[in-house]
UniProtKB/TrEMBL annotation:
Family note: Belongs to the glycosyl hydrolase 35 family.
Enzyme class: hydrolase
Keyword DNA-binding in annotation: no
Predominant cellular place of this UniProt entry's protein: secreted
Record lineage: Eukaryota, Viridiplantae, Streptophyta, Embryophyta, Tracheophyta
Organism: Carpinus fangiana
Gene Ontology, cellular component aspect: apoplast
Biological process terms in GO annotation: carbohydrate metabolic process
Family annotation (InterPro entries): BetaGal_gal-bd (IPR048913), Galactose-bd-like_sf (IPR008979), GH (IPR017853), GHD (IPR041392), Gly_Hdrlase_35_cat (IPR031330), Glyco_hydro_35_CS (IPR019801), Glycoside_Hdrlase_35 (IPR001944), Lectin_gal-bd_dom (IPR000922)
Protein name: Beta-galactosidase
Keywords: Apoplast, Glycoprotein, Glycosidase, Hydrolase, Secreted, Signal
Domain SUEL-type lectin: 745-832
Amino acid sequence: MQSSWTNWTNTFLLSIALLGSCLSVLAAATDVSYDSRAIIINGERRVIFSGAIHYPRSTPEMWPDLIQKAKEGGIDAIETYIFWNHHEPQRGKYHFSGNLNFVKFFKLVQKAGLHVVLRIGPYVCAEWNYGGFPVWLHNLPGVQLRTDNQVYKDEMQRFTTKIVNLCKEANLFAPQGGPIIFAQIENEYGNIMEPYGAAGKSYIQWCATMAESLNISVPWIMCQQSDAPQTMINTCNGFYCDKFTPNNPKSPKMWTENWTGWFKNWGGKDPYRTAEDVAYAVARFFQTGGVFQNYYMYHGGTNFGRSAGGPFIATSYDYNAPLDEYGNLNQPKWGHLKQLHAAIKSGQKVLTSSSPSTTQIGNGVDLTTYVNNPVGDKFCFLSNNNTTEDAHVDLKQDGKYFVPAWSVSILAGCNKEIYNTAKVNTQTSVIVKKSVGSNNESAKFQWAWLSEPMWDVLTGKGKFRETKLLEQKEATGDASDYLWYLTTVEINDTTTWTNAILRVNTTGHVLHAYVNQNFTGSQWTADGDHRFIFEKPITLKSGTNFISLLSATNYGSFFDLSPAGIVGGPVQLIGKGNVTKDLSSNPWSYKTGLGGERARLYKVKQSPMLGRGKWAFKGLPSGKPMMWYRTSFNAPSGTDPVVVDLQGMGKGQAWVNGRSIGRYWPSFLAGKDGCNTSCDYRGEYSSDKCAMNCGNPTQRWYHIPRSYLGNGKHTNTLTLFEEIGGDPSQISFQTLSIGFVCGSVYEGKTLELSCQGGQTISEIHFASFGDPQGNCGSFKKGSCEAVNSLSTVQKACVGKTTCSFNATEATFGSVNCGHKYSKRLLVHARCL
Ligand code: GAL
C-alpha cells in the first residue's frame, strides 16, 4: 500500500511537471489575429508570403531542402492540403507515415522558422486522384458528396476532426506554440455550389459551424466562397486577384492560390508562366490592399504512385513553380520573386498601417500611395497596366520613372524605385541532363521480361459476375487503375458474324480489347471528353467466342457525377447487313487489377516465377502490349536529382526498388501547334500562353527520388508494366544539374551568378555591359559595350561556385550608349 506521503509527493511532482509543460506551451504560444490591413502575429502587423508544397508530392528526405529554399526565397509560410484518400485508403484504416507524415513536415517547417497554412478540405481538387476523396466514400450507401447529406457530413466531420486532433496532440496550432496560423475548410465550393441549390447553402453553413466547433484558435478560411459565413475569411484563387475584395470589410484581402504556372495533362504542352507576369500579379495584389498571398505551387513535385487525378493528369506536377519538380531553383522565377518579397517587406510597416489611395495617371498607369500617418512614412506602387505601351512617368520632385508595359514599380519612400516586375535582375539557370555511365550504358542493361498473365481473363474467368456493365470505381473501389469486363457470345450463323465489328461505348478513359485471346486494339479518350466509342473489326468463330475488355482509368474531381468505365455500355457486335447484337445485359464477369499487380511483380524480392509465366532474359520483346520488364542499375554518384528517360516506351506504370514512381506515357505527344519561339510576358496569362514542348512527349523523364535508391553495383531495380507496347532498350538514367547560367541586370543593380550542387563556373561564353540583346543562349552585342566586359566577368567568376558584381561603369569602365535609360549587363556562363 502506498503511503499518503508518497501519493502527495507524486501529485506534487505531477503538478510541477504539468505546470512546467503548460509554461513551456504558454511561453511559445503564438497569437494570430487579423484586421483588414494585416495578419497580426504576436502583435506584429504582417503581410505574409506563403508557398504551397504538398508533402506527398516529394519525399521526407527532400522536405528540409525544399523548406529551406522557400525560406531563402522570402517565404513566410508553407501551405498544404491534406490528402484524405491517402491517409484513409480504407475506411477507418489510417496511414500517416513516410511522405504522409504531415506532422513531421509541419515540425520541419516550424524548425525552419516558418508558419503553416493547413488546407484540410477535405475535398481538395489539386489534380489529385478523385480530388482527394477516398473512393470508398463514393460507394457508401446514400452518400451525396459536398452537399447537405448526413452520410457525407458525418464522414467529413470525422476525418476533419481526426486531422485537427492529430495537430492538437502534436501542439501544432499557433496558440499551442505550433506553426499553423490558418486552416481552410472545403475548397472553392462557391464555384460549383449553384446547382446544389438550398442544400449547397445549408452545407456551407454547416461547414463553417463544424469547423468553428473544432476550437483550433486560429482563423478559418474558405476560398472562392463569396458568401462565406462569418467568421470564415473568404479568399481568392486565380492568376490575378487584384480586383478581389473580401465579403467582410474587416477581413484581410487574402489570395490562397496564385497559380505560378499550370499542371500538365497527357497530350498537353509544358505550361510556362513568366517570372515577370507572376511578379506583376503579386505586386498588383499588394498595390490594391493585399495582405496574404500564397503561391500555388511553390514546389509542385511529382504525382507518385496512382495519385495523379484524372483522367489525364501527368506524373510530373512541376507546375513551372519557383522550385522545379526535383527541388532545383527555377531561375529566374525563384530569384525574381525573392527580390519582390524583400521589396514589399521593406514597406511592411506602412502597408499594414494604412489604406491605399490611387491616382490614375492615364493610359493604364496608376500611382498608389500608402502613408503611415501621423508618422508620414510613405510607400508607393506605380503600375502600368497597359499591355503594349511603356510609360515614362514624371513624378516631379519624386523622380522620373520608366515603367515598362504590364509592370509595377515599387517606390520606397514614394521616390526611389527599388523593384520593377518587368526588370529581371536574376540569373536564368539552364538545367541539363547528363547520362549516367557511358553513352552505351542503356545497351548494357540486362532486361528480364514477362507477359502479363492473362489466360484467365482471356478465357472469360473473372472474380465476380453481374448481368450488367458496371461503373468502374464502384466495381474496383479504386484498388487498381484496371478493370476487366469479360463475356462470351455464341455464334451459329457464321455468314453474318465471321467478319464483324466490336463497338464499345465507354465513359473512359482507356480501353484495350481482346477477342478469342487475340488483341484487337486500344483506344483512349480525347482530351477534355471522357466518353468515346471503340470500334474495330473482329473475327468471330462458330461456337463460343470470348470478349475480354480491359478498361483503365483514374479519377478526376467530379467523378461522383461523371461515371468511368464501360458502365451501361452499350457493347455491341455489328454483323453483315448491319445486324446488331447487344451484349450489354449479357452475363459479365469482372476482375479488378492486373495479374502482375496481384503477384506484386514490382516487388524486388518477388520470385520470378508466376503461374504460367516465368521471367525471360533472352530476345527482349519490343512493341508488345501487356508486358512486364525489369532491369537493375547503379545509383548515379553524387546528389544531383535522378531521372529515368522512358523515351521509346508506350504507356504504363514504373517502380524503382518496389516503390512506384508513377504512371508513364511518353508515347503521348503534345500537340504540334501553339508554341511560339518568343513569349511576351505582357497581357493576361492563361494556361496555354507561352506553352512549350510542342510535338514532343508530354513527359519523357520520370523522377526517381534519391532516397528510393541504394548504393552499390546494380543494387537498384526498375520494373515497368507496359500496357500498349514499347522498346525498353532505349531506356537510360540521367542526372540533372545546371549546365549554363545567364545573367541579366540593369545598370546600378548587382548581378549574382551561382551554379548549384557544388559546381563551379568554368567558362564565360558572353559578357557585355552596354546595350546587348537577345535571350539566354543567344545573346548578341549591341551598338555599344564597355571594352572590359568579358575580362571583368571572367576575373570575378571563373573557378568559383558563385560570384557577384555591380553592373556599373565603376566596375566595367565607361561606356556611352547615348540612350536615355539604363544600360544593362548580359552574361552567359557555363557550370561544370
Ligand atoms: C484550383 C483548385 C486547386 C487546383 C488548381 C489548379 O481551382 O483549388 O486545388 O486544382 O485549381 O491547379
